[in-house]
Amino acid sequence: MSATPWLLLLLCLAGAAGGGVLQARAQPDTKGFITIDCGLQGEAGYVDNVIMLAYTSDNGKLTDDAGTCHNISGEYITPSLGKSMHTVRSFAAGARNCYTLRSLVPGLKYLIRAKFMYGNYDGLNRLPVFDLHVGVNYWYTVNISSPGAAKSVEAIVVVPDDFTQVCLINTGAGTPFISGLDLRPLKKAIYPQVTNAQGLALLARFNFGPTDKTELIRYPDDPLDRFWFPWVNSVLWTEMSTTRKVSHLNPDLFEAPPAVLGTAIRPRNGSQIQFSWEPQPQPNDPSPAYFVIMYFTELQLLPSNALREFYINLNGELWFRDGVRPAYLYSGVNYNNFALRKNQYNITINATANSTLPPIINAVEVFSVIPTTNLVTDVGDVSAIMEIKAKYQVRANWIGDPCGPGTVMVWDSLTCSYAIASPPRIRRVDLSSRGLNGDISSSFANLKAIQYLNLSTNNLVGLIPDALSQLTSLTVLDLSGNRLSGSIPYGLLRRVQDGSLDLRYDEINPDLCTDGNSCQPDKRKSKLAMYIAIPAVVMVAIAVVALIVCFTRRKKQGSMNNSVKPQNEISYTSENYVYGDNSLRLENRRFTYEEIEVITNNFQKVLGQGGFGKVYNGYLEDGTQVAVKLRSDSSGQGFKEFVAEAQILTRIHHKNLVSMIGYGKDGEYMALVYEYMSEGTVQEHIEGSRYHGGCLPWKHRLRIALESAQGIEYLHKGCNPPLIHRDVKATNILLNERMEAKIADFGLSKAFNSDSDHVSTDTVVGTPGYVDPEYHATMQLTTKSDVYSFGVVLLELVTGQPVILREAVPIGIIQWARQRMAQGNIESVVDARMRGSYDVNSVWKVVEIALKCSAYVSTQRPTMTSVVVQLQECIELEEGCIVEDTGGSSDNPNWSYDAYLSDQSSNMNQKNDAFSMEHTGPAAR
Ligand SMILES: *[C@@H]1O[C@H](CO)[C@@H](O)[C@H](O)[C@H]1NC(C)=O
Ligand SMILES: *[C@@H]1O[C@H](CO)[C@@H](O)[C@H](O)[C@H]1NC(C)=O
Ligand SMILES: *[C@@H]1O[C@H](CO)[C@@H](O)[C@H](O)[C@H]1NC(C)=O
Ligand SMILES: *[C@@H]1O[C@H](CO)[C@@H](O)[C@H](O)[C@H]1NC(C)=O
Ligand SMILES: *[C@@H]1O[C@H](CO)[C@@H](O)[C@H](O)[C@H]1NC(C)=O
Ligand SMILES: *[C@@H]1O[C@H](CO)[C@@H](O)[C@H](O)[C@H]1NC(C)=O
Ligand SMILES: *[C@@H]1O[C@H](CO)[C@@H](O)[C@H](O)[C@H]1NC(C)=O
Q1: Residue 48 bears catalytic tag
Q2: 3-class DSSP state of 696
Q3: Averaged pLDDT for residues 361-385
Q4: What CATH topology corresponds to 379-521?
Q5: What percent of the chain has pLDDT over 90?
Q6: What is residue 608's predicted lDDT score, i.e. its pLDDT?
Q7: What's the 183 CA to ligand 2 centre distance in angstroms?
Q8: Catalytic option among 58, 727, 755, 831
Q9: Ligand nearest 271 Cα, by number?
Q10: How far apart are CA 453 and CA 478, in angstroms?
Q11: What residues does each domain of the chain span?
């Protein structure tokens, strides 16, 4: 029989070790006890006159005051049944209901006990089965075996925080209920098997040979208030007891009370004591591991020639190598330090050959191991989400630990991340359409690990807390569908600008509603959802994002160095720039006139000339290159139009839309400051002037097509009501130094048109060759007009031809392409300068898309969303692989932000290539 070296024999021998051990026992200290009578109604509590412990009602200890109180049926109330078992609280609603036990000492061991007495409290006589969790860890499956049975379930665990929760889990086998709940603090050294990673669930705790054969021993006899149940078997065993006091050796790791150790049994017949049990399956462990603690104390003063010595065997094998010789009136304990995992446990205690006396045993405890490796959610996250829950009165299943255990119990609307050694963190919160009222809780900013926050479609009002910008992990923030006011905080805009945040919000500003067809004044409260997902190239320009470039009043055009008249910029901003009572204003940080002068170095270098005015080259203090567009007097564009555009540009952000860094006005002179697009217009690249005989490679053309399609799609789909660009063309698509395409001048003409008396509505706005014929014919503008124009751009990209070919009879590029395609000759359409270095299939497909886009009847044209999808397929064809998600706008739950973000980290390069913000075409300008 092999010895089991991993089992430690701790045998406390009798003898001289006596002095001072009595002092090891402290006086019972009830401080720290929590004793709850569940379902107790209308009473503050009471003191049980037998055990002299104060019971409190469970009011206020439950999350959301869940559950209902019941009396058990009178037929089950017997004189011996403790009062605390007379009432229950039951939980018909919710998969998980929890008691929160507070004011605990983190890291301390606690004994937690739940008590159950069904007593047909609901009159249904249906015995339920349900689970208990302690904290976020499985504890026990309560299986009520009879209505009159009082059941007690006990665990010893280390409580990691200053609170713990006891949760009743409805597993679909009946309504959970509970009669009582106790918590007792234990000393650190006691029950050494209990660690942070494992707790003990009590299977049995027996006091052998009790003098009173019915009563259990507990507090005050056991200062730790363990329940020691009597075990008597007068057929097999003879009881023994002593009236003398049994003492503990110091230290005693288990501290069984003298009342328990003062009684024992020995075999009535023969020389062995035997007991056994079978493992009780747990949900995740059909055969859990066990700890056994056996208490041996000699109760008889033995004559010198007598010997009581015995072996302890497990399943027929010697368990502890040495024979046990119990010490007279001193506690001795045998236990295993490492949990045993067997199919069955049969313990036999038999006398050794030399023993003259039969074996004895005083008490036994058997525990199964409950892993407590599920960690409670990060404390900061918990307190933040609890405050959010309280503020918005969120009910649902927001009970217990937010993240667990596991993904089964995680709160509705939350997604957590789990690591082995660190607490779960809340990563996603989707509280969209939950009827949230009031302002945005600042507690959201305390969810430090949050990546996704969706508060859309609620009734939230007030300001957006700037603190949200401190959430460095936050990549998606959806605030759309609320009635928020004030500005978008600078910090958030910054995050948006550097591409690290996808911000969606609303605008109740009617002037942003630029689609004449869908803009009903009385429906202005409808939202213009803003969708922001731009990694602006000008990372550093963030420093001035949304600043208002505030010129002071000047008299003369062209003499920018005139004297400056200070003015009240704040009222300017709040009164003049803001349309609509609830609109999100432009941030009113601003450049001074002098700063603008410095930025443009006295308007030294002109980059281009557009309908709106000249575009100047400029540098911010940190060296970031910008383009400053100045409104000229002759442009005829008024103040409102200017502000409208500025507002659109401030609010609409997408990585494929040119972003504005700031703007300013001085009444007559206005400026817009844009990110600098070093590679100029797509038009220039198609013409090939930069390629010295070569041309823009097909791959780049495809990429440009996709990116500009994404920008337009954003205008159509990311904005509500949709914004219609109305002037999509190759000169309005700009490229940055990484050849990323961005739509420029979006919404400009529309914004002007919607409000201006200068733009005659009987004039079709747009650029010849790009204008939707249906719009031209009907004056009915839809998003499909942009689709049409985009089809033209696609054809330009494929063919390299001008939009109107100067052939014998000038012919539009669409007509031209259709004619050639009708002959099935793709080669004759494709830009010959590419010299065949393209995938024919992808070119075919793009031409197909282009011709669909430019269908005469608008309803036959695809949406931009569909165009984006198809262009992505083209890229896949071309590259023969899956295109990476460059969208940033997707609701794709497969978060790939790391890849996404790293893709955005570029350095600003300071080329001085031509830059153009021209806005040609519209007849009105
Ligand atoms: C339970 O019994 C007490 C009296 O023993 C009574 O006051 C109380 O109303 C009962 N509660 C319910 C829910 O029946
Ligand atoms: C509950 O106990 C009964 C009787 O011991 C048993 O038949 C039943 O399978 C148990 N239910 C569960 C869910 O464990
Ligand atoms: C006790 O032992 C004797 C002899 O070994 C046997 O005859 C008797 O049945 C036993 N009694 C019990 C209760 O086991
Ligand atoms: C005690 O019981 C074990 C297991 O049944 C057995 O192997 C051993 O021989 C017994 N010892 C004595 C002294 O009877
Ligand atoms: C336990 O072991 C003893 C002795 O080895 C044996 O007599 C008894 O039948 C066993 N009990 C069970 C339940 O296996
Ligand atoms: C039994 O006693 C004899 C004589 O005292 C001793 O030699 C022997 O080692 C003892 N056996 C055991 C198992 O303790
Ligand atoms: C926010 O939730 C709404 C409603 O479920 C959904 O339509 C929207 O796409 C979500 N926003 C984001 C950014 O996922």
Answers
A1: no
A2: coil
A3: 91
A4: 3.80.10
A5: 36
A6: 75
A7: 27
A8: 727
A9: 4
A10: 6
A11: 13-371+904-924, 379-521, 682-880
